[in-house]
Amino acid sequence: MIKKTAAELAELIASGETSAVEVAQAHLDRIEAVDGSVKAFLHVDPANVLEQARAVDAKRAAGERLGPLAGVPIAHKDVFTTADMPTTCSSKILEGWRPPYDATITARLRAAGMVIMGKTNMDEFAMGSSTENSAFGTTHNPWDLTRIPGGSSGGSSAAVAAYEAPLATGTDTGGSIRQPAAVTGLVGMKPTYGGSSRYGVIAFASSLDTPGPLARTVLDAALLHEAFSGHDPMDSTSIDAPVPPVVEAARRADVEGLRIGVVKEFGGEGYQPGVLARFQETVELLESLGAKVVEVSCPHFTYALPAYYLIAPSECSSNLARFDAMRYGLRVGDDGTRSAEEVMALTRAEGFGPEVQRRIMLGTYALSSGYYDAYYGKAQQVRTLIARDFDAAYEQVDVLVSPTTPTTAFPIGERADDPMAMYLADLCTIPSNLAGNAAISVPCGLADEDGLPVGLQIMAPVLGDDRVYRVGAAVEKALWDRWGGPLLAKAPDLTEAVK
After folding, report:
1. What confidence score (pLDDT) does residue 395 get?
2. pTM for this structure?
3. Quick one: pLDDT band at residue 328, thresholds 50, 70, 90?
4. What CA–CA distance (Å, rounded) separates 6 from 248?
């Protein structure tokens, strides 16, 4: 049961062939069996999970009309507020905090009748590419437990790849859904910025943060995307427009006549040969399916990484100022002898991890008097140039493609002391965040060097989310026909690995 897709499970539950309780229990059993080694979850309350599932079964028995994903389990990234379980952002500064309200996306999952299995591990405050920055331990890649599962949504990607849940939520600020999806053999989607609500998502970089789905199939990702997206008056950046027809596009799975642009700037030195080989094969596959493939130059993409690492830290230094030890969360040194400023400094020193502190300091410096124009202002100008590159490209093509990441999953600890090497994991994903457009990662094979998953990134204009699902589904269908099933079926037996 745990290896069925979300769409298949939804059909089984709706037909009465199984119950939401049976499905939930099967996934709880799987979590019990493997999560001690994978470490995808920070919080699981079996009683709460089964109570949610029983409520779905009761509604169905009473004849209520339920959503298409009713009864399907989902793992929830610990950046979304949840009134019935802790929300920590994997930070000591919020350890044990129970929010007084649900995030909009949490509320929409509940309204859809989905069963939230628990909260997943992440890089602290979503700052990282490996889930090694969590204050509560490192998550492991189910393909190889010595390797990273990506980040910052690594707990979510590991949970889905380990069959602990068929679906998961993530957030993508610079690639934090697509990069974990790529290195664990999953589908990961960054919707158009503003297409999914940020209300109740603990902010890292407000102009970049984008919630989205992680799944094992393109259709499953589209179903989840449709379930939690749409305008939210509680989010001032939410787009007041219909959700693009993503499910219809995923079912269409056709690229006949589409113009597909290969981004010239993504490739060459620094890219793993096996990643480039699988990417080139997939481009040739698209051409064989009837797409017209051309090379497109986006010259300012080479400046995306430095621009991002000025803009994102600047926004984080502002957003994280709210963690002041005065209202909620950790408080250190409050013995009655210290000033509020001293307590605040002690709390932040102990409560924030090294990467969070690094980015706060970078951002504060970039925003400081005398440097704002030289650093933050220039970075925003580069951001505009990148958006113009996208606009020019989409005058020539319908979608752009590239590798999702330059390499496969690297060993845990390999880049932990080298921030620049870590940041390069998001080299291909960051431009779409800066421009706010839609982008997806779908599995496209295994690298020859290490037998680990490689991801294909498909990018489309703002509100062109359905385009990436259409192309992604076509690639998935053709590759599954070639492989004889999903890429994840080629993963080593995790049950044996955890013994």
Report:
1. 98
2. 0.97
3. confident
4. 16
Backbone angles phi, psi at 203, to 5 degrees: -75, 135
> Rounded to the nearest 5°, which phi and psi values hold at 179?
-65, -45
DSSP letter at 460 equals E
User: Under 8 Å CB-to-CB from 54, ≥6 apart: which residues?
Assistant: 20, 21
How large is the average pLDDT for residues 24-31?
98
The pLDDT value recorded for residue 285 is 98
Considering only CA atoms, which of 89, 86, 80 is closest in space to residue 128? 89
From CA 77, how far away is CA 447, in angstroms rounded? Answer: 28
Distance CA 313, CA 217 (A): 33
Answer whether 147's CB lies under 8 Å from 411's CB.
yes
Structure tokens that stand for 244 in this block? 């693009």
Collapsing DSSP to helix, strand or coil, 453 comes out as: strand
| DSSP character at residue 203 | P
Please report which helix (H) or strand (E) contains residue 120, including its range: strand 115-120
**pLDDT value of residue 153:** 98
Can you read off the two tokens belonging to residue 447?
Answer: 């690298």
Give catalytic residue positions.
Answer: 77, 152, 176
Confirm if 149 and 181 have CB atoms less than 8 A apart.
no
